[in-house]
């Protein structure tokens, strides 16, 4: 069974909107390092649409810094699975759909992998996967904002969970990376 790592940008009051993040070189290098050690990437449909609107073309854009191009190349090459109820009209390279919202297809996919799999963003999907005890590690990038935009992290989760702190470190001047393991 895969070791599922959930990575989420989250404001101080628990919101997770894609614009409420300090997205700098350290942030991109963190994502690249996380993907380097992984066999696949899982995304919810909304997060996939956000990623697919930018990253497929970023690898060849000369106006972007190299660290963004490197991340774009890694995102291009890693197998991606999108949990969705709708067909992917213009799928990104190495992308397949996992029929949702039931997580059994995702559970089956995870059971076929022995290494790391990363889930970026996708708060509704993460709540379902957390309820099913499929997330092994949580990596929260605590962003220096109080926000009213976006979903609340784990909104809709039904199962109470105890997490164990693995590590806390400063990602950049204002962002903390908090790593937690699923509780016993």
Automatic annotation (TrEMBL):
InterPro entries with a match to the protein in the record: DHFR-like_dom_sf (IPR024072), RibDG_C (IPR002734)
Entry superkingdom: Bacteria
Pfam families tied to this protein: RibD_C
Domain Bacterial bifunctional deaminase-reductase C-terminal: 3-176
Protein name: Dihydrofolate reductase family protein
